[in-house]
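Work Package 3 (structural annotation) set out to generate three-dimensional models for the target panel prioritized at the project kickoff. During this period the team completed the workflow that converts sequence records into discrete structure tokens, so that structures can be stored uniformly alongside our sequence database. As a representative example, we reproduce one entry of 388 residues exactly as it appears in the project archive.
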Amino acid sequence: MRTENGFCNLRPICQFVCDIHGAEQGYMKKVFTIIDCYIIKKFLGTYVFTIALIIAITVMIDVNTKIDNFIKTSPSLHAVIFDYYLNFIPYFVNLFSPLFVFIAVIFFTSKLADNSEIIVMMASGLNFDRLIKPYLISAAVIATGTFLLNSYVIPPANVERIEFENKYIKNKKVDYAVNIQLEVEPGVVAHFGSYDNTTRKGRDFSLDKFEDKKLVSRLTARNIVWDSAYHWTISDYMIRDFIGMREKISRGDRIDTTLAIVPSDFMISVGDSEQLTTPKLKEYIDRQKKRGIGNIQLFEIEYHKRYAMTFAAFILTIIGASLSSRKIKGGTGLNIGIGLLLSFSYILFMQISSSFAVSGAVSSFVAVWIPNFLYMGIAAYLYRNVPR
């Protein structure tokens, strides 16, 4: 609030403080409710504005980088807009959410501090512990939205987005694998020498059955073809049944059978983990662990990251509010610069720590939550040292 000569005029604010001090307790609560709404409106408004701005820029950059692919493959305008970019936007909103939670808090809180509004709020009897409440309410709104997007909205959208990318931009889908081994059901282990998903055909197939850790039957086949659901056709096969010290051998040209596996159980492509809702993702991880499949780190990382990113909204909000709530000589620019540095370092650290889980150095849970644990300590330190 500034006068024509450029100096800050605090008279209306001081009068507002006097009104607060002269009011009854019920009126005080009402004023604090107004302040809460004011901060929540500023927080969420700044967050929505900044993330809308970066998404618009991201879409323009993406169009520019992919325009050659669009010209070459000639997708319809309807497919580009509705199958790709309409599903592209929520994915990147979620990706940038932690960054812009932090930036939003830093930006509008620095403006409040620069205009001496926080000083006035505290002079009215509002300490920092109470001031942080509307920040945490706003963070809870964003965290809830992030979790719902991550768990139920973005996965179905990713199915269409990734399918579009594989068809018109670059096909990253895995269509061929070798030396596949998994547990079909307890005591039954299947092995594929190779499998081609384009022809739905596997070669050098074997199916071993165990009882009390002893091999009782072994089926080997030159070829196996997946039909639909759990239906498979085995050709040129031999079955060896072990009965005590005796062995019974039977051969055949073709047999139709039901196996509780589908190609998607072992043909894992980039982005597959992003196409499953959270309940389905958890179910998939548990099922694959029971089958002895070890290549599920990306699915575990995705599962834990959905919860870690939800919790990150609170951590980054506390750090941002603690950093920018005091008026400093450098002004808002310094606070925004510090906020950008910390937020980018958080995202970078998240990517680096996730790579530890892919390599098997640490568990997926530890790798994903390391940044949150570290920044939780930073948040606690900054919060404890904020003037009250």
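Residues 1-8, 10-18, 20-29 have pLDDT under 50 and may be disordered.
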